[in-house]
């Protein structure tokens, strides 16, 4: 009879350890998740934003959120983007299935890597791996973001894998260039991950040069950073900017924060330090006190020194993260959850390296008491992490119902919740949350933004709830054009939050009057004609007729072409559309609409055009904006 014992199977020892470690982590994590309310953490909408970009690449051939365009980098997790793009292109996985698989597989791989740090002694290795899993499942902030469907689970795996690669190489003097891509992926786990990885590589290079009198470690690090630089170059060529749209949307300025550091801005330093301590506490940093008794007995060999140095680097950069990047959106601790993995590894290593002597064994209960005490004092209870899908999917259904009632093809909708609404590719979106719309993120607030929204973007449907209604109170909801041009599908007043405390703000969904089925507007007639016969001649004729009246706004012609742009591209008519709008009075904006799927810089000319138009209107000067445009070339009339 064939024995089923693991040690009897023809499996290499390291693989046996990995399988055991992975199963231990899966068992602990699944048990912890079974006790959590899934509504607190599962399927966060911001994670689906990243997946939506990847789906857009596979389905429509460019990175963005709208089927018609534009190119936009409205996500901060490149590694997850590429992972889902590959998975979706091969299998068509939906976001719910992918998120569940990501959590399960990353949990297994995390455990499989974790146990590989402990190369001797099966019992000890299994024991400290179980302790590491237990620590990680006790901290709700780590556990929930790990299972949220966002990039955290992938980050945990890539960061731990990088530490393992550098640790083994530094200890054993064996460095394989095949591991360069793995460490490179860690640098793009999040947009700013190189901030954590670069110091790690610097320490590794210095150690290698000192210990082995060789530049091989430096060359390894240089290759990783060269790949990272090449990736940044590709981003610039593709999107036209080194900064992702998320940085503009969230007003993240590394330069401003460095200037505040240089000025020793007291308020800035105090707030950043407070956030750093919050990160440290929420990810179990105080558990490190449990190391103190064991440190006296832990074998102070090369392995311990190397590992603690690498872990200290990641602990320090996590703490300092707010000084450079500020408060992380959704939750201050969200972008630094890898700190918990490093704390768990540090504690596990300390316990693993305590010798089995009388005094060494006595250190174990002291460590346990200190660890339990630190956990109880700084326990992080389960909490709701923003933002679940229930309401957002309901809004999507309301958009679809309104479009069906009005017989409206591919409506442009404007709401602040981009993930699930954009993932289905049923709409073009003007993102009130700004992540998925470069114009919304780049245009200044006030009249310029209002003009863009009402005169150019002119979404067919608007949905907003109190926070965002307060945010856009002046630019949208108090602008007279809102009531003139939109009618409610449902509407109510609610008390305003934050800056709008004491003010009633709007909550609901509104539809633009000009696109109603029986409105009789020129725009609606053009929509219906193109739905019956997709003709660039019809567009050209409509534009010519509209522009024969100098005071008439003709942006609706380009908006209608944009509505049907995927179909025009399928027919190979994208270049013809460019020719149609080359003579338009609003050419910079029109070309931005019809070329945005292949021109990463088109938004800049359009934004400049709209801003200069508003300046001209405000000053009362003639509205001839540029020599290449006709005398009546005005942003709107």
Shape: elongated
Radius of gyration from CA coordinates = 28 Å
Largest sheet: 5 strands, mixed
Number of domains: 3
**Order of strands across the biggest sheet?**
2-1-3-5-4
Strand runs, count: 5
Give the count of helical stretches. 31
Distance between the termini: 87 Å
Helix content: 55-70%
Instruction: Give the low-pLDDT segments.
Output: 1-10, 619-637
Please identify the structural class as seen in this structure. mainly alpha
- Proportion of residues in extended strands: under 5%
How would you characterize this protein structure?
The chain is mainly alpha-helical. It folds into 3 domains: about 15-40 and about 95-240 and about 265-375, no CATH class; about 390-515, no CATH class; about 520-620, no CATH class. The chain is built from 31 helices and 5 strands. It has helices at about 15-35, 45-60, 80-90, 95-115, 120-140, 140-145, 150-170, 180-185, 195-210, 215-240, 245-250, 255-260, 265-280, 290-295, 300-325, 340-355, 360-375, 390-405, 420-425, 440, 445-455, 465-470, 475, 480-485, 520-530, 535-545, 555-565, 565-570, 575-580, 585-595, 600-620, and strands at about 410-415, 430, 460-465, 485-495, 505-510. The chain has a 5-stranded mixed beta sheet. Helix 21 crosses helix 31 (about 600-620). Mean pLDDT is about 90; it is low at about 1-10 and about 620-635.
């Amino acid at each position: 009879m064939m024995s089923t014992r693991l040690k009897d199977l023809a499996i290499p020892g390291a693989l046996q350890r990995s399988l055991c470690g992975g199963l231990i982590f899966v068992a602990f994590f699944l048990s912890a998740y079974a006790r959590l309310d899934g509504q607190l953490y599962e399927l966060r909408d911001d994670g689906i934003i990243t997946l939506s970009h990847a789906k857009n690449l596979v389905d429509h051939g460019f990175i963005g959120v709208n089927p018609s365009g534009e190119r936009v980098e409205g996500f901060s997790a490149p590694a997850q983007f590429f992972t889902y793009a590959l998975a979706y292109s091969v299998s068509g996985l939906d976001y719910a299935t992918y998120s569940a698989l990501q959590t399960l597989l990353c949990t297994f791989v995390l455990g499989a890597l974790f146990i590989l740090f402990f190369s001797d002694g099966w019992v000890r290795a299994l024991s400290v791996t179980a302790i590491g899993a237990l620590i990680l499942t006790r901290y709700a902030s780590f556990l929930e973001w790990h299972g949220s469907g966002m990039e955290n689970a992938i980050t945990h795996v890539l960061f731990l894998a990088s530490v393992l690669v550098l640790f083994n190489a530094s200890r054993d003097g064996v460095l394989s260039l095949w591991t360069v891509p793995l460490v490179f992926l860690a640098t793009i786990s999040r947009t700013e991950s190189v901030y954590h990885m670069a110091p790690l590589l610097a320490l590794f290079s210095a150690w290698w040069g000192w210990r082995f009198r060789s530049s091989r470690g430096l060359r390894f690090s240089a290759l990783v950073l060269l790949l990272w630089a090449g990736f940044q170059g590709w981003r610039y060529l593709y999107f036209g900017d080194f900064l992702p749209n998320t940085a503009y949307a969230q007003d993240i300025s590394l330069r401003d924060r460095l200037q505040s550091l240089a000025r020793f801005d007291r308020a800035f330093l105090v707030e950043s330090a407070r956030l750093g301590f919050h990160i440290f506490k929420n990810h179990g940093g105080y558990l490190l006190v449990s190391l103190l008794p064991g440190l006296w007995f832990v074998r102070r060999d090369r392995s311990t020194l190397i590992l603690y140095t690498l872990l200290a680097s990641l602990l320090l950069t996590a703490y300092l993260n707010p000084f450079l990047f500020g408060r992380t959106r959704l939750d201050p601790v969200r972008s630094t959850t890898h700190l918990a993995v490093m704390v768990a590894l540090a504690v596990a290593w300390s316990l693993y390296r305590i010798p089995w002597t009388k005094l060494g064994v006595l250190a174990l209960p002291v460590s346990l008491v200190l660890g339990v005490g630190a956990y109880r004092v700084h326990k992080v209870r389960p909490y709701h992490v923003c933002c679940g899908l229930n309401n957002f999917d309901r809004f999507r259904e309301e958009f679809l119902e309104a479009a069906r009632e009005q017989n409206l093809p591919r409506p442009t909708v404007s709401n602040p919740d981009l993930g699930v609404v954009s993932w289905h590719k049923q709409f073009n979106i003007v993102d009130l949350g700004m992540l998925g719309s470069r114009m919304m993120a780049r245009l200044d607030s006030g009249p310029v933004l209002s003009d863009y929204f009402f005169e150019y973007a002119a979404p067919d449907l608007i949905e907003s709830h109190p926070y965002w209604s307060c945010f856009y109170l002046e630019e949208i909801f108090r602008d007279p054009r809102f009531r003139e041009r939109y009618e409610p599908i449902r509407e109510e007043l609610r008390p305003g939050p934050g800056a709008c405390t004491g003010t009633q703000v709007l909550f609901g969904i509104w539809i633009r009057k000009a696109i109603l089925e029986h409105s009789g507007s020129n725009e609606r007639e053009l929509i219906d004609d193109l739905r019956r016969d997709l003709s660039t001649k019809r567009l050209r004729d409509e534009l010519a007729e509209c522009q024969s009246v100098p005071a008439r706004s003709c942006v609706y012609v380009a908006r209608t072409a944009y509505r049907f742009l995927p179909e025009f591209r399928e027919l190979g008519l994208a270049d013809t559309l460019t020719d149609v709008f080359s003579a338009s009075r609003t050419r910079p904006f029109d070309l931005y609409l019809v070329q945005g799927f292949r021109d990463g810089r088109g938004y800049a000319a359009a934004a400049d055009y709209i801003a200069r138009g508003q300046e001209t209107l405000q000053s009362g000067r003639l509205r001839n904006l540029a020599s290449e445009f006709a005398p009546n070339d005005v942003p709107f009339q």
